[in-house]
Amino acid sequence: MSIQCWSQEVLLVDLPEDLARQDELQIVLRMLHNGGVCDVVVDFSQVHVVGGAWLTHLLKVQRLVHEHGHKLTLCGVAPVMRGLFTIAHLDGRFEFAEDRFAALATPQLVA
Question: Fewest Cβ atoms closer than 10 Å to its Cβ: which of 8, 44, 93, 109?
Answer without folding.
Answer: 8
